[in-house]
Amino acid sequence: MKLPSLSARLSACATTLGLLLAAALGSQATAGTLEDVKARGTLVCGVSEGLGGFSEKDGQGTWRGFDVDFCKAVALAIFADAGKVEYVPLSATDRFKALTDGKVDLLSRNSTWTLSRDAGQSLEFVGVSYFDGQGFMVPALYGATSPLQLNGATVCVVSGTTTQDNAAAYFERAGLKVSFLPFAERQDARKAYADGKCDAYTADRSALAGERAELPKPDDHIILKDVISKEPLGPVVRDDDPKWVNLVRWVLFGLIDAEEAGLSSASVGADKAQDAGLLGALSGPPLGLPDVWLTRVIGGVGNIGEIFERNLGEDTPMQLSRGINALWTQGGILYAPPIQ
Amino acid sequence: MHRPFSSAPLRPFAIRLCAAALLTFATLLPTGPAAQAATVQERQRNLAVIRINAIDLLAREKRLPLPIQQRRDVLRAYYEEQAGELLWLRDDRAEALVAILNDAGADGLRPDDYPTGQLLSLMQHADPEDVRGLALIELFFSAAFLEYSADLSVGRFLPSKVDPNFFLKTRTFDQAAALQAVAKVEDLDDFFDAAQPPSSYYASLRGALAQYRELQVEGGWDLVPLGPTLKPGMTDPRVAAIRDRLATTDGADPAPTGGAEAYDGELVKAVERFQARHGLDVDGVVGPAALVAMNVPIEDRIAEIELAMERWRWMPRDLGQQYLMVNIAGFELRRVKDGQAEERMSVVVGKPYSRTPVFSDQVRYIELNPYWTVPSGIAVKEELGKLRSNPGGLSSQGFQAVRGKDVYDLTSINWANYGPGNFPFQLRQQPGPKNALGRVKFMFPNEHDVYLHDTPSRAAFSKAERAFSHGCIRLSRPLELALQVLTAGGISGWNMDRINQVVATQKNTVVKLAAPLPIHLTYLTAWVDEDGVNFRKDIYNQDAKLLAALDGKALAW
User: Fold this and answer.
1) Is B115 close to A154, i.e. CB distance below 8 A?
2) Do A37 and A124 belong to one domain?
3) Distance (Å) from the C-alpha of residue A169 to the closest C-alpha of chain B?
4) What is the per-residue pLDDT across B116-155, written as a single tens digit (0 to 9) for each?
5) CA-CA distance, B186 to B168, in Å (whole number)?
6) How far is B357 from chain A (nearest CA, A)?
7) Rounded CA separation B37/B21 (Å)
8) Which secondary-structure segment (H or E) carries A299?
9) Are B554 and A227 in contact (CB < 8 Å)?
10) What is the pLDDT of residues A140-155, one digit of tens each?
11) Which domain holds residue A289?
């Protein structure tokens, strides 16, 4: 449903019966996102315009990445086909409007879950797929182990987000003086850093990992362990379709619960086939999905751990360790309610 | 600005600059005496040119790489001095420094924290024609040297950043002095030996660390299965496992004659040694506490040693010729003279939620037969009810009310007229056998209102873990310590008889020390004494916090 039409209707029917009427009209106006997606035959998924490890086009023009795999997971759940996704690259400014305007069914685009985005707009974050946080990259030669050693530094930053404010507040609290060199575009910030115009580069740590991979000699740069802000990233949908919210939410939880239960792309076709089948049969009907949905999803893209390692892990250019993104049973904080 | 670390392909390396200094060092030195003389001269000239470039960089370059920029003034001051010759490129010292950084683990520091790979790479890719680039390399090495020296000497963290309960004075590292000193030493090791915390406590922990690392390489120790409590004389299949475990650290005989499952003889002695080292009841009984302590992995023990070493870096370098030292985590006080512990006694320290703070100060006076003044918050909150219902009860325990200079009997006041916001009295307990502070207190006036004192409740001293107080430190043998402190504080004419006589009078008596006695309140979960390496529980959770800080994690976790 589109926001303007709803509000127009609401104001038109602002009588005693109006609200009830509006609700009835609302549900009539659309059959529901799942039905729309099925009728269309593809899932329209909003992704980043190009962010290493999260969503980017490879040499063959195929979309790849952590966020892309989540789109695939939802498509697998609905269509049993990871290919039935239409990817819509969205800029940071356009992303939420594209979702509320109905241009995409789902936004899987490294978006931080905050109060104003959740409660202030007609958006619903279904959960956290990646716990990100702002950090710092510095030349390894500096021998720095903490941002608290960056007194007097010039710091490259991409403007237009909360990143610079976060860092400024952090350094002010610590009583350190740093100056910022802001850039509108990431490429320019990276180049300035690579050219030695800055001593450090601050961004979300996942983004820094991507930036480091783009540098001429990635190993000459380190990402400090300290995290100075909470950036929980997760898929977003419109908040007017609880069925759709539930479906997308439980696909995410399913990916996490699968890892905890030992369900992997390999095991769902082998020793864990029965477990996956049982969980799928239990959860399929209330979600409006076929009983085999979980087996298809995990068989297609793997569990959350596999998705992480494939796109972001130590063996990828991103070289990220799971850290707090490990399961809660393995020292991380990744935790999903159980499929019961 | 030239950034040699960002590109610079490896170029054929000309020997003319300082083959001895860069890369291959001594092996490439020209052999003939004539060639040698010419090269030496040329080398000196080149070193001088590099130095001039270093000075110029420091004086004129607008932006220098951060580690150099942050130390610009002190570096410039050093290199501009007449004697301020190059520190690293002048001979094989750059390589020696890298070797020392790579061995940072020996001091409980982390080699990965220092950019050794990058520094070596700078050297390997150095262009001998590029004197400015070489100057920058020299400065990078100086910056890394200062960073490491400060870490080694005063620690990586400001203590209060790790835990607000630390109140040690922040010690600063004298970078100028370090540069001067390292320029003078023949051998870099001489400098770093002197930069370490000088106390024998640190040195013994350093030795223990090496020993435990060796044990770790050999595989550490295996778990002993939990099970029923094992007493001397019993037999148990786990005895072999206990024997193996204690053979590693407590001198148990790994292959004794006699029954393999019999728990007796020298193995009991080894268990008792283990118990003593871990602050457990020394009874030879292997219960859950002993087993859990045995099963702590060697990695964790190594971490505890490293954290204790870090804490020693925060301590004053000069502890004093005589001093008192309380280890909160060890529930113990020591009186030390000329490096020897002449007295060790059990103490009770603050509960985890009313922690005894960590700081250093000086005992300035002792008070025999002290008054105890109830803190005003507690007086209203906890005592007002009793004052109203039964003031005689408190009176009989020696309490009285003080207002200005006047002292009142509690029963003479109508307490119904007073309450929160209107309580112009101080409640204090007179000296005597029921006084909460006992017979003596030791004052080192401080912002935390923490002091040492006697106590009428002795039961806590029989417990192995003694964190029960509101923050003050209760002594198990206070009168003995009083005499020792008076002696150490330069007050003559006191002996036990005189102390006992004064105590018997129940009269408040203040004795000021002629020479204030240093006191250090510490929190150490690992230390070395004649029993070996001692480990204690992290009662205040401060090890966990320090470790998290070192790992760059948010402290709240």
Assistant:
1) no
2) yes
3) 16
4) 999 999 999 999 889 999 999 999 999 999 999 999 999 9
5) 34
6) 23
7) 16
8) helix A293-301
9) yes
10) 999 888 888 899 999 9
11) 32-131+232-330
